[in-house]
Amino acid sequence: MNKKRLIINMSAQLISIFVTIGINFVLSPYIVARVGKAGISYVKMSSDFVSYAQILVSALNTMASRFITINIHQDNYKDANKYFSSVFYANIIVSAILLLPSVILVIFLDNILNIGPELVCDVKILFVLIFINFFISIITSIYSVATYATDRLDLLAIKTIQTEIIRAIILAVAYVFFRPYLWYIGFASIVCTLFLAFANRKFTKQLLPCIKVDKKYFDLGKIWELVSLGLWNSVTRLGQALLEQIDVVIANIFISADAAGVLTIAKILPSTVTNFMGNVIGIFNPQITIAYAKGNTEELIQVIKSCNRMLIFLLSIPLAFLTAYSMEFYPLWQPTQDAIELYQLTILTVGTLYVSMSIQVLYHVFIITKKVKENAFVMLLSGVLTTIIVFVLLKNTNLGIYAVAGVSTIIGLLRNLTFTPLYAAKALGVKWYRFYSDIGLGFLSIGCILVIAFISKQFHEIDSYASLLLVGIPAGVVSVFANYFIILTKVEREMIRNKIKNVLGRA
């Protein structure tokens, strides 16, 4: 494992993530105040509808990075070019096919969702722009392979930081100086996607000069190879959509637009942690794929275990703090909303992460080892069961929005405690219990930090951002030291100490 490259990638990605979190933290309550809690739910649902469309294209695109990266590191540039060009042209064809159903959906959108008359036009424009952004991102997505295949995610992270700053400027200017509309968010997304697409195209020329789009490389056989294997990833995405993304739509249609808005707000912080986790995993995925391409099983296992520990180290603190402090945080962040309701929904929503943070990287193992079929079936079964149980509870109980938020968490916990670690161990040819130690390590870390957080609340009442910081910062520092000794190995602690000594020595 290239530890130097890993540290560079990690640092750049973390800066990118914190910039994104900061922007969302500032803008989210402002947008809620301007367009209302029901209004912000339509932003979430527009992204969800795009996710449903991505289920179809993921059959082609999910495996592209794997095949291109492996061929490049095996010096098979001819096949790498075939995969690259074939995916590019296939994405154009798929986008053209999806254009008509997207137009029909937008036309009849107010017949599908509960939308207030005053928001119909605004929401439809938002959906149009979000779908345009989707088509642009799909067509240009193949260019993102360059930074992945060369393990230069630090370059992408720098551009992502710039992208989020551009998004913040556009939205700030739009909402401060003009009448508030939801479609501003869609417009900002298009600008940012175009900016990132041009950056990725430039990186492809710089990092992979031998890889380019050319009609002569178009190969239907390569497309079929990707689709036949990636089809199972589409099934997986369908299960994930039923588990995690359809909940706001269900709340809108079967409860109310306001209920969908409340659930959307409650999911902002858990979704931020989830995105954080995805970005951190993305840092390790190239090295996992490269280690697999080299046939180095021991290095592969070590990268996976390091990733699991890194995820626990980074995520156990925000998860524990979200659990301990969100009851005091919500009245400050969303003063117009019911803090108790938001707290309860947040805890229900975040529950799956208590386990998945320790083993989420194992889902990439299924991709690189091409063991995707069984995982796809389990994910789809989980999603179908979740949807059925939610509908039964909505019809026969008064749980309402709590049923929508809670069932997927329970199903997700059961899956991550049983199938995911067991089947990943089988796919890698290691002992069945190999990854349960990581789950236990995650629980130990969260438990210790929860104790630290709850003790810290006893010293000072939290009634402002200043008092929250006064309590939270010392607790955070203590939590970092606790994780330093609980999570990291002796070798990793020594490496960090040496790194700090070198930095101080140069200062």
Automatic annotation (TrEMBL):
Its main location: membrane. It comes from Lachnotalea glycerini. GO terms for cellular component: plasma membrane. It is found in: Cell membrane. The keyword Membrane applies. The chain crosses the membrane at residues 12-31, 51-68, 88-113, 125-149, 156-175, 181-199, 310-330, 342-363, 375-394, 400-423, 435-456, 468-489. This is O-antigen/teichoic acid export membrane protein. It holds the Pfam family Polysacc_synt. The keyword Membrane applies. It is a multi-pass membrane protein. Keywords: Cell membrane, Membrane, Transmembrane, Transmembrane helix.
